[in-house]
Write a structure and sequence with these properties.
With 276 residues, the chain is an alpha+beta fold. The chain has helices at 57-63, 128-131, 133-184, 187-192, 196-203, 207-220; strands at 41-46, 66-71, 224-235, 238-247, 250-264, 267-270.
């Protein structure tokens, strides 16, 4: 039976772990690292035999098989910190339409039909009126522009026609005033609405002579009367009018006469009177 190894002569055996014990005396100031400088820490595991005596640790140590294990040193001795993350929104689940019945043998499959998907809560539906507002506004603007052009053209045409008609009306008014002045013997009006040789004939009379002449002509009914104004043609500052006249003493005998008028002093004036 093998004998256990004896301790070295002249000294006491070193107990286990003596390499980690702190020396006494002056050597006690030296620091001994708790973890070896090697990157790997050697761990010795001693497995006691099933029949060993626990009272003799030295005997058990001789018969034990040693097993080496290498444990990596810890990187951080602090506590683990849990970082709180923001909660994610709940996943929206769309309800799937129910599956249709399987097609029967010999029957054609049903055509696909559009399905309405309900909108999200709070979403605003887009109506067709909002989509067509731009086209409606464009059509309204076009219609307004065409109406404005039509109104402007009508006003211009009407204004030109009214201007022409107003000149004709002024000619007719002058002719009517001339006829009234002859029937009443108004010498002042006759001098105002006549021009040329016609006015010279009325200008040669003084008031007394005119009164005597008008009294004789009116008693004999020798003055002309304009029955109607048949046609008026205005050409710039010159106008011509066709009138139907008769002598006051014989209304049944009528004739057509022509009057020449000129635009002078901002009014139409008769420059030739019908002869009797």
């Amino acid at each position: 039976m093998p004998q256990p190894p004896e301790p070295d002569r002249g000294g006491t055996p070193n107990p286990r772990g003596h390499e980690w014990a702190a020396p006494s005396g002056e050597d006690a100031t030296e620091s001994v690292p708790l973890v070896p400088s090697d990157s790997e820490t050697e761990t010795v595991v001693i497995r006691p035999e099933s029949g060993g005596d626990p009272t003799h640790p030295e005997g058990d140590a001789d018969g034990a098989q040693r097993e080496r294990r290498f444990t990596a040193p810890g990187f951080d001795a602090k506590e683990t910190t849990v970082i709180a993350t923001t909660p994610e929104p709940a996943t929206e689940v769309f309800a799937s339409p129910p599956e249709g019945m399987p097609a029967q043998a010999g029957m054609p499959p049903k055509p696909a039909v559009p399905q309405s998907i309900p909108p999200r809560l709070g979403a605003k539906l887009r109506t067709s009126r909002q989509f067509n507002w731009g086209w409606v506004l464009a059509l309204v603007l076009i219609v307004l522009a065409l109406a404005a052009i039509a109104i402007l053209g009508t006003v211009l045409l009407t204004r030109g026609k009214h201007t022409k008609m107003s000149q004709e009306d002024q000619v007719r008014t002058t002719i009517q005033s001339f006829d009234t002045a002859i029937q009443k013997g108004d010498l002042t009006t006759l001098r105002t609405i006549t021009c040329g040789t016609t006015r010279d004939g009325y200008a040669d009379y003084d008031e007394h002579q005119w009164d005597e002449t008008y009294r004789r002509v009116s008693a004999a009914k020798q003055y002309p009367v304009i029955a109607s104004i048949d046609q008026v043609v205005v050409n710039g500052q010159h106008a011509e009018a066709n009138v139907t006249t008769f002598m006051a003493y014989d209304p049944s005998l009528r004739s057509t006469r022509s009057l020449d008028l000129q635009y002078r002093d901002d009014q139409w004036k008769i420059c030739q009177s019908p002869s009797g």
